[in-house]
Amino acid sequence: MTTTAQPPRFTEASPRIGLLGSYGGFNLGDEAILSCILSCLRTHRPGARLVALSRNAEHTRAHHPTLDEVVDWEGVPQRQVLDVVSRLDLLVVGGGGILYDGEARRYLRVVGAAQARGVRTFAYAIGAGPLREAEDREAVRAVLSAMDEVVVRDEESHLVLEEAGVDRDIIVTADPALLLPPEPFTDQMMRQEGIPADVHRLVGMSVREPGRAAEKLDEGDYHALLADVADFLVRRLDAHVVFVPMERQDVHHAHGVLSRMTAPDRGRILHSVYSPGQVLGFMSHLDLVVGMRLHFLIFAALSGLPVLPLPYSGKVFDFARRLGAPALVGVAREQAGLLLAEVDRLWDEFPQRRGDFEDAVRRLRGRARETCTRLGSVLDSLDAAAPAVPEVAEPGLHLLRPGTGTAT
After folding, report:
1. In this predicted structure, what is the pLDDT of residue 14?
2. Is the Cβ–Cβ distance between 135 and 110 less than 8 Å?
């Protein structure tokens, strides 16, 4: 049998583009973000060599097959990471909430090393805050000021970076996951999860640890509060409630809530591992969602569902405000009635507000596309600058050609 030789995918002119974020299967939202950034890059540069720096390279290789190379950047010798970074033309950072106390300095140490080696850097709709620790604030000021462009996903992140002393233009767009395409969540998957086919209504719920949104509640009280909400939904809507874990630790809190429900037989927890696109596809089976995790709420909004964000953090408040959803400031155990009243109002008023809600989602998707467009402009400038750079250095010098990451 005669075979036709395939042209090589990469040439010397193919840009090497690195991606750095909280990738590796720790959070479905971060995985959704990576999928959307990869789609953006493949649209603008189909022939680019895409290299992901992952917290779990094995997971990233398995779940993002369009990547050309995946390397671990945690728990490995720094020299290995620097060797990968030095060969890049561009490092794309984010998106997602990676710039916060204790973590910002770790990510920005890699970004700073790239900048020192002449690699251009782009912040892709990142989230920031809280930033109170001096070392993280210093890293943010130094590294972000030297980036080609800094794009954040919400106004809260913009304010946090300004307060930390970042003195440069900061562009506000929207979360990259707003552009995620859905994948089918089949009837067979529903049966495997034990969700009855004849349910009257189905409500999705996302819970996590209380965090800063409910610091005065102990875990038991917090679970009891959310159980009150779930039981109310069962009674008010004749519904079944399905808890959707977005991180592994969410399963523990979902069980805690389910165990405190007076109608636990009307609750289920998704137990299988699904891709972000499949979780987005699952939303087509729901009638309403109540939740804490940002990307759970984003998936629900993309699916045209009435959304009630539970108090958690600034990024959730910002998304609720931009969406036109109820933006609760805080809920304590003794204020459960206020939360239930908000659920009731949302259900009753949503048919009249649906048009405004859908317009808000379209605007947010447009802002998310703007990030990709801006990255495309940086890639264009990378191409334009490359031919004008001399490729011969004086004898004995080992320079980096700006914008290529290639030693001369």
Report:
1. 86
2. no
Phi-psi region of 130 (alpha: psi -120 to 50; beta: other; left: phi over 0): beta
Q: Tell me which residue has tokens 């069980």.
A: 255
pLDDT value at position 313? Answer: 79
Q: Could you tell me which of 277, 322, 269 has the C-alpha nearest to residue 303?
A: 277
DSSP 3-state assignment of 117? Answer: coil
**DSSP string computed for 224-247:** HHHHHHHHHHHHHHTEEEEE--SS
pLDDT exceeds 50 at position 393? no
Strands 90-99 vs 69-72: parallel, antiparallel or unpaired: unpaired
256 preceded by a cis bond (ω within 30 of 0):
no
Tokens of 384: 């334009």
Q: What is the pLDDT of residues 78-130, one digit of tens each?
A: 999 999 999 999 999 998 999 999 999 999 999 999 999 999 999 999 999 99
Query: Omega into 402 within 30° of 0, i.e. cis?
Result: no
Which 8-state DSSP code applies to residue 155?
A: H
List % helix, strand, coil for the chain (3-state, nearest 5): 50, 15, 35
Output phi, psi for 247, to 5 deg: -135, 160
Give the pLDDT score at 160.
Answer: 97
Distance CA 234, CA 228 (A): 10
Q: Is the CB of residue 88 less than 8 Å from the CB of residue 16?
A: yes
DSSP code at position 275: -
Q: DSSP label at 220?
A: H
Mean pLDDT of 283-310: 96
Distance CA 84, CA 114 (A): 9
Spatial separation of the C-alpha atoms in residues 103 and 196, rounded to whole Å: 42
Q: Which residue pairs from 326-332 have beta carbons closer than 8 angstroms and sit at least 24 positions apart in sequence?
A: 330/213, 330/214, 331/214, 331/225, 332/214, 332/216, 332/217
